[in-house]
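Example record

One chain of 260 residues, shown exactly as stored in the release files.
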Amino acid sequence: MLLISSRQNPFFKTLLKLATSRKERRKTGQTLLDGTHLLLALADVGGLLEKIILTPAALENSEVQSLLLRFTVPQIVLDEALFAELSDLPSTTGIMGLYAIPAAKAVRKDGFCLLLDGVQDPGNVGTILRTAAAFGVDQVLLADECADIWSPKVLRAGMGAHFVLDMLEHMALPAFAAGFNGAVAVTVLEQAVPPYTVNLAQNLALVLGSEGAGVSAAMQAAAHLRLTIPMGGQIESLNVAAAAAILCYERQRQVSLSCA
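Predicted structure tokens for this chain:
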């Protein structure tokens, strides 16, 4: 089992780039899965790792020992200080995996698709991905301006959703909308209707806009439905991740009623 204790080690330098650089993750097609929760989620769906990186202390941890039995890949031990440079978890478990990012699937033209139009906050993107997995979204498409779905913060907020979702980044959303065989719905504040007053139980592309500017003008122009979530309090709008959960639930509710 290889032990790395120098910051000049080439493999450590590679790991550090993956932990901090979207460009490096995109170039290599790799990312890091930090912590036991993500690795367990991957193991539960039969996913594979390229390597496991851990600290000497983690080797003595019973939870880590059980997890290691689920992956038959090379294990590399990093000095505690070096590992800490790679991990941004508040309380590190001392284990992470080197993971090959799956190839994107073909773009769908039907089903339930979630379109992220410039959602930039990693926590919001990860939470939306978790919601998408919970409510049976068929495909998530993200515009260039969105946070990197394979960044450590998005992965942590997604809590394993990445391993069960069909996701495509760097998408031209207006072009996708033009070829979609169903309704395109945008979330806006004005000239909009509540989601429970329209048919969402159909082929649907639901567009969620950026935290500051909302849905772009191009996507608003492409929409068939303009949706707003009625609220009785003193807040003008919801966090985009909260809005995603409400709208995805409403679609699932309508689908369940139509099947009853």
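Notes: Residues 113 and 139 are 5 Å apart (CA to CA).
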